[in-house]
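hey so i finally got around to running the thing on that chain from the lab meeting. sorry it took forever, my laptop kept dying and i had to restart like 3 times. anyway pasting the input first so we r on the same page abt which one it is
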Amino acid sequence: MNITLIIGVVLAFAALLYAIIDVGGAVAIPMFFSFGSFLIVMVGTIATVVASYPVKVLKDFPKYLKIAFLPPKNNPVDYIKQVEDFATTARSKGLLALEDGASKCEDPFLKQAIMLIVDANDPDKVRSMLEDAIDFTTERHSIAWTFCEKMMSLAPAFGMMGTVISLVIMLNSLGEDTSQLGPLMAIAMITTLYGSLFANILFGPLRSALKNAHDKEILCMQLVVEGVMSIAAGSNPRLIKEKLEFMLAKSDVKNNEKAAK
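ok and heres what got predicted. didnt touch it at all, straight out
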């Protein structure tokens, strides 16, 4: 579970709540709840997003939320270990001996990469195919965070629309009942607040969580590409491991070594 996402969002809302209570007391809390403002910002944002994408894309949104809160456990160090094991087998028994291990591999990309070199395909073509697969994966995944980016841009816009609506009603009331000017101005400001709040505290972190999950998966795929191509070239397993570890932060490698002890 993405604990940092949950903790961060909860803390942000808690900080806002504390600020409201600190400035206006507990009695001020109801002043910041406006169902009309919420409808303008959230329903307007969601409706516009729905209008911007086909049903085929929209139906995957729950899956994206699941990835944000429950990201796949892609551990780059585990991939390095698997590649090193394949390299050791290839070094001692030949590339054809990798077929049995590949058939048991849980990661489809690693399995496909191993099978490509087992079938004695041209190394340049294999690299090109694997790198194309990474590009296509990035293109598919980008839909997830562009959802959030669109909502990040739309929420403040609808917040401003709600403010304009309230101001128009308020200005029309200037010559009549001036007692409503204060509440109308408050609603105008609350709608702007909702737009900024949802864009920065909700949609922004969701976007970052999805992008982080993608970056980690792509790193693992890149490790597979470099590792498999090194295996095809007949490189020493120890050299392959060191080469792949250079692609990671030193702290990640050290932390994994400590955990393994």
